[in-house]
Amino acid sequence: MGINNKELLINEQIRDREVRVIDVNGEQLGVMPTKKALGIAEDKGLDLVKIAPQAKPPVCKIMDYGKYRFDMLKKEKEARKKQKVINVKEVRLSATIEEHDLAVKAKNADKFLKSGDKVKVSIRFRGREMAHTEVGYEVMERFNSMLSSEVNIDSKPKLEGRSMSMVLTPKE
Predict the structure, then answer these.
(1) pLDDT band at 164 (very low <50, low <70, confident <90, very high)
(2) CA–CA dist 45, 39 (Å, integer)
(3) Which residue of 1, 83, 139, 165 shows the fewest CB atoms closer than 10 Å?
């Protein structure tokens, strides 16, 4: 039932003349006037819920709407719990970065990767550094060799304008 809870019409909100009715057990009761279907639902102490408004005639099910809504909210909550949020952290380097500074940046990137985040490594070239972009590739290679954990290179180092970047992801 891929319909949002807010869109489901129940009981008197259903304005159609005729509806196809499904019982609590999933058995079809057939097409009948809405008033008759509402009567059947009331006799059982349940609600008439329109579950397929686009069908001709619309499909309604007899169910306990409160319980149904509770179950749907519970399922949504479970789905949200199981979701893994992946952040992209950025580590900025320069073409003339010193070895120790590079080691510190690599240590930080390692920490990000171990916590399950992606890492974007970027180098911004200034002025005459653009004439020596191969230095940037070397810095990226040194940076990769300093990472302690196994990583996948999502996108290899590539030059875009004045900056070079690559994306690393943690190995599964």
Answers:
(1) very high
(2) 10
(3) 83
